[in-house]
Design goal:
This protein has seven helices and two strands, in the order H-H-H-H-H-H-H-E-E. With about 130 residues, it is mainly alpha-helical. It has two domains: about 35 residues, no CATH class; about 90 residues, no CATH class. Strands 1-2 form a two-stranded antiparallel sheet. InterPro entries: cNMP-bd_CS (IPR018488), cNMP-bd_dom (IPR000595), cNMP-bd_dom_sf (IPR018490), K/Na_HCN_channel (IPR051413), RmlC-like_jellyroll (IPR014710). This is Cyclic nucleotide-binding domain-containing protein.
Length: about 130
């Protein structure tokens, strides 16, 4: 967190942006400050795939196309997933943008708007227990 404060001070960012950066940082790392890529780099390929499948278990169990894949293909697909964190009111992608990826909602709520700003649907992630 100290590095973030130094960065924001050095860049002379406005307070509203500093607040958003702190909110993002807290939400993204949730008091877990470790370098995931360093840890993943130490693991063997097979162990890295096993860890990834375990981490993505909820996604695999809720997305039908994943649950129907053979384990070796599933491991390869999950190895290409990248986690993203968005804050309230962030724009994930704008209407009319050519897509180059697919999004899966792991938690929270996402709304879809027309170019004129009318909300056409909302996705809400709910864990079934």
């Amino acid at each position: 967190m100290n590095q973030l404060h130094e960065f924001m001070k050095n860049k002379k960012l406005p307070m509203a942006m500093r607040d958003r950066l702190e909110q993002y940082y807290e939400h993204r790392y949730q008091k877990k400050y470790f370098k995931e890529e360093v840890i993943a780099g130490i693991l063997s390929e097979n162990l890295r795939k096993e860890v990834n499948i375990n981490v993505c278990k909820q996604l695999v169990n809720t997305v039908k196309i994943f649950s129907e894949l053979p384990p070796n293909i599933l491991a390869d697909v999950l190895g290409h997933l990248k986690g993203e964190v968005y804050l309230p009111n962030d724009i994930i992608i704008k209407a009319g943008t050519v897509g180059d990826c697919m999004y899966f909602l792991a938690s929270g709520t996402v709304s879809v708007y027309t170019p004129s700003g009318r909300e056409v649907c909302m996705f809400l992630f709910i864990v079934k227990t």
